[in-house]
Write a structure and sequence with these properties.
single chain, alpha/beta, Glycerol-3-phosphate (1)-acyltransferase, 2 domains, about 50% helix, transferase, membrane, 1-acyl-sn-glycerol-3-phosphate acyltransferase, glycerol-3-phosphate O-acyltransferase activity, transmembrane
């Protein structure tokens, strides 16, 4: 129940936070399991949140293991996150990945859907980083258990990692075939065959741009000029800035205290967490002057925020 409520709320909120969302294969959003999405990882936990809100099926995401402290472990698992450990988090923790793989196998056995970040590292950049072996090992171990798993490459692409109101492109690839991976040549050859196929597909699904390449960004994320829309939304957008500035700028300042590669995700998460409270406080403030009319803010504030996102530049 908690997961469904959060998913529904995040689905609505991201319609405001993201200016334009493009999916190259919309049918993939109705996919049935068992499925493993093998993706790049440019924007921290915002990658997982976006895919979670778009999919019809419940999504289980693999997340960095050091976040699963005793304090947060239960809550993270309740929103369908599973820990995966890297050598940088201690070689002794790597054995816990077998438990996570077993949990993934259980999800697959129930026709579930799992998201894994095949680079195993989040970096705000427009390129594909070297792939680790975890995705291959998870897929191969499932196939060896006769689980009819479908592995689908997925590229996350963002027009910006710092601005409010960005364009996001989700590019799905073609399923990786079990028969082309499971060879009688040993695990090493199988992992190599899997990663070669995954690498080849992700190279075509992930945009490759140098930092500061504005021309490349405009080419991949064209912004159609609609003067009529801009004229109609100009005043609502200005009102949206006035109504939300008291929340937006403090959120930016707090997010700047975190690792830069997590900045965008922290900004999105803080807005998701505190916007209902901010909206409630605005209604209570106006209530003393306008009474029940203040409830119109429930529609006005989200509308003006959306108008600001539509009008604002990249």
């Amino acid at each position: 129940m908690l997961f469904r409520l959060l998913k529904s709320y995040a689905r609505l909120a991201l319609r405001i936070y993201i200016r334009r969302l493009y999916v190259n294969k919309p049918a993939m959003l109705q996919v049935k399991g068992p499925v493993l999405f093998a993706a790049n990882h440019p924007n921290s936990f915002l990658d997982g949140i976006i895919l979670t809100t778009l999919l019809e099926e419940t999504l289980y995401s693999l997340a960095r293991g050091d976040a699963f402290t005793p304090r947060w472990n239960k809550w993270l698992r309740r929103i369908h996150l599973l820990p995966v450990y890297r050598t940088t988090e201690g070689a002794g923790n790597l054995a816990h990945n077998y438990t996570t793989f077993a949990s993934c196998h259980e999800v697959f056995a129930q026709n579930g859907v799992v998201l894994i970040f095949s680079e195993a590292l989040c970096v705000n950049e427009w390129k594909l980083r070297p792939l680790r072996k975890g995705t291959a090992r998870l897929a191969i171990s499932a196939w060896q258990k006769d689980i009819p798993l479908t592995v689908i490459p997925l590229g996350f692409n963002y027009s910006s990692f710092r601005s409010f109101g960005k364009d996001v492109h989700l590019l799905f690839g073609s399923p990786i075939q079990k028969e082309s991976v499971l060879q009688p040549d040993g695990d090493g050859k199988q992992i190599q065959a899997f990663n070669q196929q995954l690498q080849a597909q992700l190279e075509g699904l992930v945009y490759h741009l140098d930092a500061g390449d504005q021309e490349g960004l405009r080419r991949h994320f064209p912004v159609p000029v609609n003067r009529v829309e801009k004229m109609m939304l100009a005043l609502p957008a200005l009102l949206g800035w006035l109504l939300h500035a008291l929340m937006y700028y403090p959120v930016k300042w707090v997010a700047a205290l975190f690792d830069s590669d997590h900045y965008d995700s922290v900004v999105a998460a803080l807005h998701l967490l505190f916007y209902p409270l901010y909206l409630l406080l605005a209604i209570l403030l106006v209530w003393s002057m306008l009474g029940w009319t203040s409830l119109l803010l429930l529609l006005l504030m989200p509308f003006t925020a959306r108008a600001l996102v539509r009008v604002a530049g990249r």
